[in-house]
Design goal:
This protein is an alpha/beta fold and 151 residues long. The chain has 2 helices and 7 strands, in the order E-H-E-H-E-E-E-E-E. It has a single domain, classed as 3-Layer(aba) Sandwich (Rossmann fold).
Length: 151
């Protein structure tokens, strides 16, 4: 598993990093985005979505589970599972419209849905470093490591 750690000094740099990460993604990829409240998860996803051709406003889907956006060549899904304690009690197809072929998906707060999020390409973890600074750890998961991404 390849790993790198980046420190950003503000939202613009965090968004720019999201755009950089998007450049390495392809159809069907899943990106797990972890971090405490206010750490910049949606800001990072916004940068990635912009790089993928999304022109609509990219906002946190906290109260709606997910948003789907039209990108240049594919759909971009942005899910926020913060309010779910797990997917065991949810409809089995809850995530079906957001994941898989024809789209790239970003999932905030993936921890409690681990069993349903196999095969992630990247695991991104954001943490506060004081003020607007953030430490962002990017783990590129290889095929063998993708099973581990559920943890």
């Amino acid at each position: 598993m390849a790993q790198r750690s980046i420190e950003t000094s503000g939202p613009a740099e965090t968004e720019s990093l999201g755009g950089e990460l998007a450049g390495g993604l392809r159809e069907g990829d899943l990106v797990l985005v972890r971090g405490e409240l206010g750490s910049g998860k949606t800001t990072l996803v916004r940068g990635a979505a912009r790089a993928l051709g999304v022109t609509d406003p990219v906002t946190s889907p906290t109260f709606s589970i997910g948003h789907r956006y039209r990108g240049r060549d594919l759909a971009v899904s942005h899910l926020d599972l913060y309010r779910l304690a797990g997917l065991e009690r949810e409809e089995p197809a809850l995530l079906a419209d957001y994941l898989g072929p024809g789209r790239i998906a970003f999932v905030e707060w993936p921890e409690d849905a681990a069993a349903d999020l196999d095969g992630a390409r990247l695991r991104v973890t954001l943490s506060h470093r004081g003020g607007d600074r953030r430490r962002i750890e990017v783990d590129e998961l290889e095929a063998d490591d993708r099973e581990e991404s559920r943890r």
